[in-house]
Amino acid sequence: MKLFVLAAIIAAVSSDRFSSQSQSTGGQTYPSPWQVGKQYRYEVTSRTLAHLQEGPSSGSAFKAQFTIRVKSPGRLQAKLENPQHGNFNEQLPDPRELPVDLKYQPTPNIDKVFEIEIDGGRIVSLDFPTSVPVPQENLIKGLISALQLDTSAHRVIHDSQNNYDREQQQGLFRKMETDVTGDCETLYTVSPVASEWRRELPKFANEQDPVEVTKSTNYGHCHHRVAYHFGVPVGAEWTGTAHKTQEQQLIGRATYSRILTGKEGPIYKAETTSTVHVHPHLYGKQKAEVYSHVHMELISVDQDSGAEWPRAGAMRPAQSILYSLSTKQMTKHYESSSSSSSSESHEFNFPEQHEHPHQSNQRSRRSYMRSKLVTVHKVLKKRNSESSSGSSSSSADSSSTYINDDIPDIDEPAYAALYMSPQPHADKKQNAMNAQKILQDIAQQLQNPNNMPKSDFLSKFNILVRLIASMSTEQLSQTSRSIETAKTSNNIIKSDMWMIFRDGVTQAGTLPAFKQIQSWIENKKIQEEEAAQVVVALPRTLRYPTKQIMTQFFNFARSPAVKDQMFLNSSALMAATKLINLGQVNNYTAHSYYPTHMYGRLTHKHDAFVLEEILPTLAADLKATVEYKDSTKAQVYIQAIGNLGHREILKVFAPYLEGKVEISTYLRTHIVKNLKTLAKLRDRHVRAVLFSILRNTAEPYPVRVAAIQSIFISHPTGEMMQAMAEMTHNDPSVEVRAVLKSAILSAAELQHPRNFYLSRTAQAARYLVTNEEFGYQHSFKFIDDSYDEDNDIGTFVISHIGSEDSLLPKDFKIVTNSKGGAWERNTIEASFSSAERFLDYLRDSVFAPHPKFDRAHKYSAEKIAKLLNIKNDEEEPLEASFYVDFMNNQRLFSFSESDLQQLSQYISEYMKKVESGAEKHYTKVYNQDQVSIMFPVASGMPFIFKYKEPAVIHFQSKLKGKFSFPSKDNKYYEANMIKDVQFTYAINIDGNVGFMDTLSNQYSSVGVVNKLQFNIPFKFGIEIKSGLIKFRVEPLHPDQDQTLVHYSVWPYSASQKKDSLVAISQDPATKIVERRSKVFSVDSKYGQSTHAVIYAQGYTYSSDWRNFGAKFTSRDYFTNLASLLTQEDIALTHFNLKHLCKQSQSKALTITAYYDEYYNQQNSGILTDATDRNDLSPNSETRRAEMVKLVSAGINKARVRVVDLSASFEGSQDQNYVLTGTWGDSPVDSKVQGMLFAGTKSATQGNQQINAVFATTKPEIHSLSFSKPLQSDLRAPFGMHFKYGQSGEIRVSGSFDRTKKYTTELENHPLAKQCSQQTTLNNFYQDSCHKAIVMAHAPDHVEFSVSFQDMSPQYRNFSYHTYRLYEYLGYWYTEANPLKLTQNGKMDFKIDFSYFDRTYTVDIASPSGEARMRDMPIATMAPGALSFYQPLKAYELVANYFTGHQYQPYCSIDGTRIHTFSNRSYEYPLSRSWHVVMQDESTQRGNWHELAILSRRQQRDQQEIYISYKSESGQDLEIEIQPASGDSAYQVKVTTNTKKITDDDLTMYWDDVKEQPFLQYHTHKDGVLVINIEDDRIRAIYDGQRFVVFTQDYRNSTRGICGRMSGEQRDDYLTPEGLVDKPELYAAAYSLNEENSDPKTQELKALATQQAYYPEYKYTSILRSDPTWQEESQSCGEDQWQSETVYKSRSYDKHKGACEVRQQVQFYENHGDICITTSRVPSCQSHCRAGDYKIQHVQVTCKSKLDHDFRMYKEQIKKGQNPEVSGIPSVKQFKVPVTCQP
User: Fold this and answer.
1) How far apart are CA 224 and CA 805, in angstroms?
2) Could you tell me the pTM of the whole model?
3) Which residue has the higher pLDDT, 217 or 1364?
4) Which intervals hold domain Vitellogenin?
């Protein structure tokens, strides 16, 4: 009886729901196209297909007859009759049409009677029999959507352009309308139809003219959409049209409907077409298309007097025609349909646009004097600039709370993530079995890399991931237990099975997978490094970061099971905080990266768990580690807090940045760098903080440079950019000036729309930037985004922070951000407190010298330090870190000094392990990027786009070696290692576009797969000895051919069964897209002569290969490399590079490199023509000795360098290639000679060799004078002789000259004029003179003749071929005269350099004619490269050009001026007091040398020098130098513990420990004494009056009048007592009160002590204002009317009384807070009104709505009470009454 009553109630309710429907809206009745008592029969066809721009189409078709019976108003019965369905995958003449011979099959479970509820022409709901599956329901919804015709005003969007005339049946209006694809804005047009409509509707030609109605859907404005997405790149628009500059159109989607209907009905014809366009690889011109078309045409309209069709059993209601994923009914929550268009679309802003100053200013101008009013207890939505730091956001419609499916439970897989089609919510028993089968298959394939591309290893891995993703917790746990046994197996295949499964679980991204990983770590199945690599991938793979998961992950990262494991502890913490940023803090990624359209936002936007739980915990951890001075952990916590990217991290970091908590400069720099995540959100607060830091010149420069590098991420305002441009002129720090210039100039070149504002502001400031040139060692930031409209390769950023103690940077960072990357991807960063000290520490850990010096020096460095009270700088703790974000692994390896000690121990232990043999097996499979987007199309089937970049790294090795460290018995490091390596790296770029045919469960798709694989299967051996390195390589499998490189591109069309376990490429139904003709092909073998055969084979149909050089046009190498892996013209491509081991007779290759130097060589004779060598064997000591003797012939005290390279191919017939070169010169001889030998020794091809000799004579050098070299000719004759074959030879004779023209140009150059002015003041070696002297020794004319004998014909026209090459390149003006010939066998060359024009001209005269190439560009550093100037070498001059003279800096003690190492020049004439030129005392680690150089002038034109030097090898010397008197030589007195080996024109002392000269000195021809200590460690030139010292050591450690050598001129004001401002005080401060010192100098020294002040850092306040100024700014600020919300006060007093102003405490609620005023505010009672208003600034205090006290205060206020509150106040504006009136 109960069941009967319940059934009756349900029937009554159901019938009432239908019968009560009125076909009217707002009192107006609208006709329905369906008339009661009529039966309508339609012919229905539907097709959905996918296709590329060429090739086959893959799809399905459906047809049936559709009958509609109208039994009562608003209620229809409908039925599909004879439904049929077919699939196809074939080439079609028109890719959108169907095959003519398509075979249809009956479609079950869809021909049931169902009911439709309508309101006019609008579909309200449907009732389906429960026997109709949900996929068939969605198909029916797609058909019904095509018939929906609603011209009523229901949900019309208010817009002045809307119009509709019901009488005329014409109009155009926008409204919100629901169909199967979503509830979105729809544009209706109603218009008459052309007279030819009868041809289209022949059956109804006699009816009255129909009306044409068209509908177009705007998917950018929806109240609800049914969609699933994951991993969508930043700025990629797929829901609508990309309008903003920060957006790129990822997917183009459109739905268009056309309906022909009678004025009173019926609908004669209805067509709906959906198109989706997307490039399979995200961006590009050649889009794939998914096309869906529904066609319904009326066959007949008949009277229907028959009985209703009986229901087919129980019915299931569908409340809308939206696409469904289950039978469960969800509830819509969207705003009123009558709201305006501006209020219907709640748009999130992109991070790139968030709070941008340009937009803020525009809004401000529009809203000037227009305050927003709200009553005190209501929330007013603020401008974006007032939102939280994370409110960067997403595309439209995110406010919708409509949920399509429930978020998966912690134990459930993600059903919707697979195909966005209804799934049975139960485990498939075969999942585990199938997973194990695939695991076994691909683990076996991994052992044979040659077949991996063909067997499609990576595609099968993603099938495995799909299977794992479909498992519940229980099933996954069972599967894991069955595979975990393979983890410890010695079997390689089983071990690979475990590692592949482990990575498959990591990539699955489901909640059961996350739970399984936790279980592995807790049960120690994976530990330390292995566990770390798993955990760090989770932020990019976890698809459902709910609050529960994020807090669970964070707590897990801090649990003992994790914190006690090396590598895992830091990695887990960073992974957890990164996930929290992506899933909660960053509103943009929280919406766009995760499937919010399917499940709604996964965490509440205003949930305070980050502020209440996560951040306080991390802040406390950081505070504790700082108190314990644990730098290693502090770096990790700083990075983790920075990862959160919440604005509140500024408060956490403030005490450390402000100096209230003392930390090292390194950690402060680390904090500033880790503000980048917040800066990416364009947060204006962090932008203000960064700008304040970079503007604070009292901050340490590393902190300021880090702020500059981060502020460009936040997109600084135009005013900030202009201020920074001005700073490039006047900032005291060269590092700051350098990085600002490079950042502004590179930002101005950016082209990507996402960088539009940054580029524009930089372009406006670029012309304000200084022209000062900075060295490459200085801080810089370079940004490049190679972009065009259809191809977005990515962004490349390189930056570093310069060092004061090294040319190596303190911080070096490279970032590549791919088109699919949401975060910085492939980031490598190395950071040091001091790179120099770090390297010294590692070096000394292996070899720590402890020299002992028994002899006391007259003025040692130690003694000088005591005399002048020089104290070594207090060194900050040695700290370092390496940050890597690669393979989706974000890793931070931080070090302190104690960690480095452990590191050296670890290295030593590993070396011991290697000596007994070490094996390594590593496999890592991961998805570098993945994007999934799914949504329904017109047919009711889900469109599916999936992009993945699966990659694998497989590494197997065996290493055994022996190491010998320097000792008493052996002074050299030696090593001998043998390593077997099998290394494989493969990556697929796999894009797939299609749809799921839910009727046949067939997945129809098209796509493109790019495959790249590298395979290195070799055995390596390396031997290191003194001066010798020997490298041996041989195939690991000599009996197998090996594919070393594979590259292919496969466009295809496919049709696969759902959940197929077969890779698409291996499915027989898959069809490859091919073209008729190949663009390029290769089939060649190389290396036959060496018997090591390399085979290149392949082809391509892509037109990209017609101009391969076009791929190398970018400014950076990364972009050029990335372009090789992408195709603009997608076409079948296949290339292999193979090593044919079976055909190669050579089974091993040995490469030997030998280098040595010989000093003081004395050999009589002269260098003769080249002759053949008798010894052709590799690494021949005999040949080297012979060549050393020959090349040093005739050179006085020659120094000879020898390089010997050889390559030996070993096999049945050995093949040897040898290259030996020697070079001889001498500091006391002008001759320079060289020899070259190149030979081959082959058993099959015989012996061949080429010999060459070279000789030149250096011109006269004037080291300290600019005028003298100009007074004499600069000429350097040279000659070369080549001998090859039996009688072939080439002779070259010519000279380098300086022309009179160039001499005149030099004399008139501004540089020369500056030098002349300095010379008149007796200053010969200041900056301008140094540069001028170098240029004066540079030749500008080279002329030589080449004569040849028995030259092969192909070389005789060398000049002509060279000329044609230049002409082809087209860079320069070229001329040719084929009539002007030289004699056979001779060529003449003339090269003229114009250094000031930066061009050169080449004239070539040959037997083929004369050619001239004019005005070819030449590098600016050419004079240095060609200059003969000494004592600097050519490469040092070039390096100095690129480093601002800091590679080999110099200091000159000139006549009246001193030029410091850091390029500061100041006036100071030396007195008779000894002055410290340089002083550097040895430290405990890293610097074991001691140096002291003193200088004084006993007379005005005579300078005396004293040098004290002690080396790390235990050698020491003292040198006392006095100027020459009359014709006598310089008086040089040397006291040393080394042995003198020569003592005439070149004096040399020998270091027996290092086996090299310890001291050399000689007097040059120009009368300059040249000193060389420890083989160029210190060089000096001296002419009796002036002294110049060159050295690149002692950076930032030396003290004296030559400065600190830090590269910063501002450092050259620091004396032992502090900073002084006057140059005479600075120099006098380094004078000694010894040996008859000058009284005046001592007076200046005493004055310097009095005036000195110590440098002091003053740290930056972080967003701190005093209360008075803050209040004044609020009340007096110009933007007070527009800057914030204005609240309206009210009185809560319930007792009516006289209308007068009452004082009442006010409250309002804002998001998750309750805010209460700290004082009473004027207000009027509710029965009164205000006579006038004013704006009053009031302090308020806010706390969470969960706060018990504030909830109580709110209730008291509502009762009229006035509670007192306390807390941190902020100032808000209230609109208060001046008077109250009745």
Assistant:
1) 61
2) 0.87
3) 217
4) 34-812
